[in-house]
Fold this sequence. Notes:
Blueprint: H1 2-11, H2 13-35, E1 41-48, E2 51-57, E3 59-60, E4 72-73, H3 75-80, E5 90-96, E6 102-103, H4 109-118, E7 122-127, E8 130-135
Parallel strand pairs: 5-7
Antiparallel strand pairs: 1-2, 1-5, 3-4, 5-6, 7-8
The structure holds zinc ion.
Amino acid sequence: xxxxxxxxxxxxxxxxxxxxxxxxxxxxxxxxxxxxxxxxxxxxxxxxxxxxxxxxxxxxxxxxxxxxxxxxxxxxxxxxxxxxxxxxxxxxxxxxxxxxxxxxxxxxxxxxxxxxxxxxxxxxxxxxxxxxxxxxxx
Length: 138
Ligand SMILES: [Zn+2]
């Protein structure tokens, strides 16, 4: 039953197109994560009106006073800093490990605040077995 409903969703062009967009943008986020030079490799892409506006990896900081937890500018925040108009935008966040496997990339509490302030409404993020979606600032 569930399977039949899923199939009918996939045969609906509007849904198929949306799913294809989600996959293509998360792929862009994965490419950003692969480029990261940090120990934990994250990438983020901000999309608005069906167009990618900004993308970034997380960025290492070189300040020894910063504790390990805050050792990088998170990819979400780095991407937000690269655009001015983020209202009603969607962010795609990916994390890969050293072997290139997808890992959980749920935005942290701090990034969720940054995203909410920027007006970003949804986040799609990788997990170790696929994708999850969360509402921002709800
Ligand atoms: Zn974060």
